[in-house]
């Protein structure tokens, strides 16, 4: 998982792109929006589900063996420097990993390439699975 090139202003993660690869020897298809949870201490059994607001049309994406698909997750940004704050007054949260679930493909634990996920309000906007890599 990497930080998205296009993301909201602030000091948190803002937005991240999650890549999925078909590692099987057979073609498969994905369709829908992901579920997302923050994983405390990197442990998926201690995760905190985030409220997902779906965006975009959920079209079927066919993947040949080795094929890739993506989702873009946009978080409510942490504001300020150092100790940071949430505009809503909530406490910022940070997670070393996320557990991202896809319909028919199970849940997968992923980490940012460059740090932890920081967000406010325990909500995330998620695109539908797509064959086009988002920015």
Order of helices and strands: EEEEEEEEEEEE
The shape, in one word, is elongated
Distance between the terminal alpha carbons, to the nearest Å? 12 Å
Counting helices, strands and paired strands, the structural category is mainly beta
Over the alpha carbons, how many angstroms does the gyration radius reach? Answer: 15 Å
Helix content: under 10%
What's the quaternary structure here? single chain
Q: Helical element count?
A: 0
* Largest sheet report: 6 strands, mixed
Instruction: Indicate the low-confidence ranges by residue numbers.
Output: none
What percentage of the residues does DSSP assign to strands (E)? over 45%
Secondary structure: number of strands = 12
Task: Report the mean per-residue pLDDT as an integer.
Answer: 87
């Amino acid at each position: 998982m990497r930080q998205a090139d296009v993301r909201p202003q602030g000091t948190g993660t803002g937005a991240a792109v999650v890549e999925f690869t078909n590692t099987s020897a057979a073609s498969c298809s994905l369709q829908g929006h992901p579920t997302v949870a923050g994983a405390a201490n990197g442990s998926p059994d201690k995760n905190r589900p985030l409220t997902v607001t779906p965006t975009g049309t959920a079209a079927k994406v066919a993947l040949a063996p080795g094929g890739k698909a993506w989702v873009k997750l946009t978080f409510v940004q942490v504001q300020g420097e150092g100790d940071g704050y949430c505009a809503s007054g909530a406490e910022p949260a940070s997670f070393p990993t996320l557990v991202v679930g896809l319909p028919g493909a199970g849940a997968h634990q992923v980490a940012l390439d460059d740090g932890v996920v920081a967000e406010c309000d325990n909500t995330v906007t998620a695109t539908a699975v797509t064959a086009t890599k988002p920015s």
